[in-house]
Design brief:
It holds the Pfam family Fumble. With 276 residues, the protein is an alpha/beta fold. It has helices spanning 35-43, 58-62, 76-90, 127-138, 143-150, 162-166, 195-221, 237-249, 263-273; strands at 4-9, 13-19, 25-31, 50-54, 71-73, 97-103, 107-113, 116-123, 160-161, 178-180, 225-229, 253-256. The longest helix has 27 residues, at 195-221.
């Protein structure tokens, strides 16, 4: 029997977490564009089920749940960090301090020190950027297709590297770093580029901006670990590779959670078992 549900209503996806009788954590999601479907799923449970609700579009979902009495709202940041801490423990990660980078439609960055957390930075670059730029440049707007095609693309003739600027001369910094995302695109029109290469380069831009900002925050906070979470990373191996390799290149340890898009929903669920 399900006693409680945690729901994170994001800009694109509504994520849900709950425990079944055997305490096995179950996760699923719905498109946030169809909150009636979410409401119908909730209605399949008994009326007195406990619901922890969080996320930017939580108020919209609440309009579908007016008759539900056992519903309470959690601040999104609090729910997400609670979920991250649970996931770190579940995944066998044993560190008490780290930077938490949540890549949703945009990106929010937090500092975690034991039980304390604070938002320290953020950027409008995120999953929305990935979808929007991909659609504008290639006409492809399905996330799964973007990920699949980008995996076989190359950034080598679209991005400009530091070594490209110095033309074989000694570079003052690592020559393999990106000097300008899409910096070589002007040499040939985008119409002559493959969709795979363009999508790979969009992933590169998103990944490098987010990891660069996260690394700067880790430097400022004197922290080794950067935990990258959010639905934009879900089954997105190309983006994880970009972020992971860049973070390691800058001498920080990247951590990717197994269920990286569900931290908010898990935190909202746990609040019902904590008696909040």
């Amino acid at each position: 029997m399900v006693q409680a549900i945690g729901i994170d209503v994001g800009g694109t996806l509504t994520k849900i977490a709950y425990f079944e009788d055997d305490q096995q954590l179950k996760l699923l999601h719905f498109p946030s564009a169809d909150l009636q479907k979410v409401s119908d799923w909730i209605a399949s449970f008994k009326e007195d089920i406990q619901i922890g609700l969080t996320g930017g579009r939580a108020e919209q979902l609440k309009t579908f749940l007016r008759s539900h009495k056992n519903l309470h709202y959690l601040v999104e940041f609090d729910a997400t960090i609670a979920g991250v801490k649970y996931q770190l423990k579940k995944d066998g990660q044993n560190f008490a301090e780290g930077v938490i980078t949540n890549i949703g439609t945009g990106t929010s960055i937090h500092s975690l020190k034991g039980d304390a957390h604070v938002r320290i930075a953020g950027t409008g670059i995120g999953g929305g950027t990935l979808l929007g730029m991909s659609a504008l440049m290639t006409g492809i707007f399905e996330f799964e297709q973007i990920v699949q095609l980008s995996a076989s693309g190359s950034r080598s003739e679209v991005d400009m590297l530091v070594s490209d600027i110095y033309y074989g001369n000694k570079t003052p910094i690592d020559g393999g770093l990106t000097a300008s995302n899409f910096g070589d695109a002007g040499l040939r029109p985008l119409l002559e580029r493959s969709k795979e290469d363009i999508l790979a380069t969009v992933q590169g831009l998103v990944g490098e901006v987010i990891s660069t900002l996260s690394i700067q925050c880790a430097d400022a906070e004197k922290m080794e670990h950067i935990v990258y979470i959010g639905s934009t990373l879900a089954e997105n191996e190309p983006l994880q590779k970009i972020i992971g390799s860049y973070t390691k290149r800058k001498n920080r340890t990247p951590v990717f959670l197994k269920d990286n898009g569900y931290s908010g929903a898990i935190g909202a669920l746990l609040s019902k078992y904590d008696g909040n």
